[in-house]
Design a protein that fits this description.
By secondary structure, this protein is mainly β. Helix content is 7%, strand content 39%.
């Protein structure tokens, strides 16, 4: 081979090398880094993510996620031009951090996007307030919501039961507004001398959370304190208070069933001749005093009757002498179809107390609980089925009277005042019972 041939061969080789170098200099490159990654909490288990695609040559995107105690891992591989993703099936209350990058056949983007961290809505954190103001039927408590779980507290209160771990599926609960922080709750309708379990609760979009459980016992009610006479009418008119204020049955009074259907546990008064005298209560003072009894009303009197009272208990001297009278009545005269407490110096003095604002007697032949209290200042209250119905004040003096009668009085000259219905568990106290005590008696 001559010299010229060798030079030509070398020239061809050098030209090929130059072409190869020029081709490599113009080769494709990886895509640009996506930007502006944003995360939005949609629910307790879903996060929506969006980002900006800055490249024109990506094959797709890879989205990574981690929790505070883990490393990043790819959770989604997305196609070209993708700019969003919904991450579902997450854990309520958990914290997640995200980042995204683009890629093509020549590699990944130079870096990751910005990181975003979100915490999903979780259950609230709260405690139950110590129980205070415990009585036989009531107590006060509440809760303190220290963390709303990332969601709005829509409902809060306390729930209680005689069993542990009460939940809001029970009817025995309070509803005390919304929002975080301290709140108070009043528990009512409890039974005396009973152990209860109570928990505060708070509800948000993640569900209902409960505070620590607290147990407490209600107080006992001493319904014997101040009891002058108690007539259970269990086949006789005996006084079970221990004070020997026994009654004597007269006329049309017969044993009958009580409100539970138990035979010979109440008395039925015929409305014509039946009454019970209690001679030993002659000197009973009326201030202060409480009457409590279960009764039924058999029928209303005709509206054309001139003097229409039916006596539950009556006390009076000689009506003709206008010496005065006092008693509990169902009234059909001045106050039609209502209960009243009468105190007068003889007819036509008006009654002291009329009972409900509705002025209607209860359903005929249906058991109801009534109670009347009068204190030394003349403040009176009427209760129906344990609830306050009416109240007022009467300052005229109330004296001693010469006999006590159940189901009637001795004003025969003015017409028939005999009780027409049942009477049971008549209690008489020389003190004013509290609302809680009356509610308790009405619940037994």
């Amino acid at each position: 081979m001559n010299k010229n041939t060798i030079l030509l061969a070398l020239s061809v080789i050098m030209f090929g090398l130059l072409l190869a170098c020029k081709k490599n200099t113009n080769s494709p490159i990886p895509p640009l880094t996506p930007t502006d990654l944003n995360a939005t909490v949609i629910s307790t288990t879903q996060v929506n993510l969006t980002w900006v695609d800055k490249s024109t040559n990506e094959t797709g995107f890879k989205l990574e996620r981690k929790t505070p105690n883990s490393q990043y891992a790819v959770i989604a591989t997305l196609g070209v031009n993708a700019t969003s993703f919904s991450d579902v099936g997450l854990t309520s209350g958990a914290t997640y951090t995200y980042r995204v990058y683009s890629y093509n056949e020549y590699g990944n983007s130079p870096s990751y996007s910005n990181e975003v961290t979100v915490t999903l809505i979780g259950l609230a954190t709260l405690t139950t307030t110590d129980i205070q103001n415990i009585t036989a039927t009531d107590a006060t408590t509440g809760g303190n919501i220290t963390n709303d779980g990332g969601g709005t507290i829509s409902s809060r209160g306390v729930v209680w039961s005689t069993s542990t771990n009460p939940t809001i599926s029970l009817s025995t609960k309070t509803t005390d507004g919304s929002g975080s922080g301290l709140f108070g709750s009043s528990i009512s309708g409890l039974s005396a001398n009973t152990k209860y379990y109570v928990r505060a609760y708070a509800t948000n979009a993640a569900g209902t959370a409960y505070g620590n459980e607290i147990s407490f016992s209600t107080n006992s009610i001493n319904i014997k304190n101040g009891l002058i006479a108690f007539f259970p009418f269990s086949g006789n008119a005996g006084d079970s208070s221990g004070n020997n204020n026994h009654g004597k049955v007269n006329g049309g009074v017969i044993s009958t069933s009580d409100r539970f259907g138990n035979a010979n546990k109440a008395y039925l008064f015929d409305g014509q001749t039946g009454y019970i005298d209690v001679p030993t209560l002659n000197s009973l003072a009326y201030k202060p005093i409480t009457y409590s009894s279960w009764i039924t009303v058999n029928e209303y009197l005709p509206t054309n009757q001139s003097f229409r009272f039916k006596s539950i208990v009556g006390r009076n001297t000689d009506y003709i002498l206008n010496a005065g009278e006092i008693g509990l009545y169902a009234g059909y005269g001045v106050d039609d179809n209502t209960f009243l407490f009468w105190r007068g110096g003889g007819y036509p003095n008006l009654p002291l107390v009329s009972h409900p604002t509705s002025r209607l007697m209860p359903t005929l032949k249906t058991w109801i609980h009534i109670a009347f209290t009068l204190n030394s200042n003349g403040d009176w209250q009427w209760f129906m089925n344990g609830k306050l119905s009416n109240s007022g004040n009467f300052t005229d003096p109330l004296d001693y009277y010469n006999f006590f009668r159940i189901g009637g009085d001795n004003i025969f000259t003015r017409g028939n005042t005999f009780w027409d219905g049942k009477i049971d568990e008549l209690r008489i106290y020389n003190r004013v019972l509290t609302q809680q005590e009356i509610t308790y008696l009405a619940s037994q």
